[in-house]
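Supplementary material to the annual report.
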Amino acid sequence: MAPSEAVTEIVVGEFASLSGATASFGQSSHKGTAMAVDEINAAGGVLGKKMRLVSEDDQSKPGEAATVVRKLISRERIVALLGEVASSRSLEAAPICQQAGIPMISPASTNPKVTEVGDFVFRVCFIDPFQGTVLSKFALSKNWKRVAILTDVKQDYSVGLSQFFKAHLSVNGGTVVSEQSYSSGDKDFKAQLTAIKGTTPDVILASGYYTESGLIALQARELQIAAPLIGGDGWDSPSLVEVGGKAVEGSFFSNHFSVEDPAPAIQTFLKKFNDKYHEQPDAMAALGYDSAMILADAIKRAGTTEGPKLRDALAATKDFSAVTGKITLNPQRNADKSAVMLEVRNGQFKYVETVAP
Ligand code: PHE
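Predicted assembly:
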């Protein structure tokens, strides 16, 4: 890079699953992130410089996140890192950023361990002890007391969400009647579902990603299991309905925002996103956008991109008006934000309720 270039731009890294099993996570978060960077630059950039986003694809593969993040830090000399969606991949990157003193902001990883890695690691979303409680309270409010749980043991996210759900449910009048597991990429869930069927649950918690949850719903119906399914934010993708079809109708999941929310911040974002990409944004797109906006705001307040000062400015983020709500980063570097419950109805995600932290 020529010296003149070095002073005219601020290089921000992004790692995302742009391809592979959960490509839609990376594609979505990247679209939101890139849109925010374009807007920031159109409005003059930050500290008189343009922001340049350098994106790397971790291919949804374990191990690859660490590799691409090391590369971003050593070769691109990024001042901060945005990403990832999947908690397991954010957990690969976090120690690397912490050690290098490069602030990292995960848009959508909800497992608590991510920001526990250290004081350079932030996120702009809520965490799973909260999300698990939201789901448990929702199940209990429907009088679904006997719950079967299906966990993706390859994902920290799913393992954590199941655990936090169970912790709340079991001391609030519910019972976990069956606990089954699978691994990301599995296609056949009949054995687990047959075991679940025998326990006649009121509801099934499928705590993994949409990639498997749609198939789980289909196979549950094939086995004549009529119990509704519930899930977490990992369900948020149009693919859930494309794969699950009728089988996911009447299911519920928790999420970071609802496209039906009339809040101007959300409606403006929807319109801009739709104008640019001709599709509707999901939560990962909105959170990707928010992560870049929060970073730009912190760089402005810090007046510099120096790691420790930028870290301090990020930690001081307070009442930032983001698409997914007002963001204050708490002392644990997480955002205390509301969750929404959505119902899958007529192939769409219909707003049910908002649950405050
Ligand atoms: N919360 C999930 C995780 O931590 C990621 C996710 C967020 C997936 C939002 C879909 C939508 O792994």
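The first strand starts at residue 9 and ends at 16.
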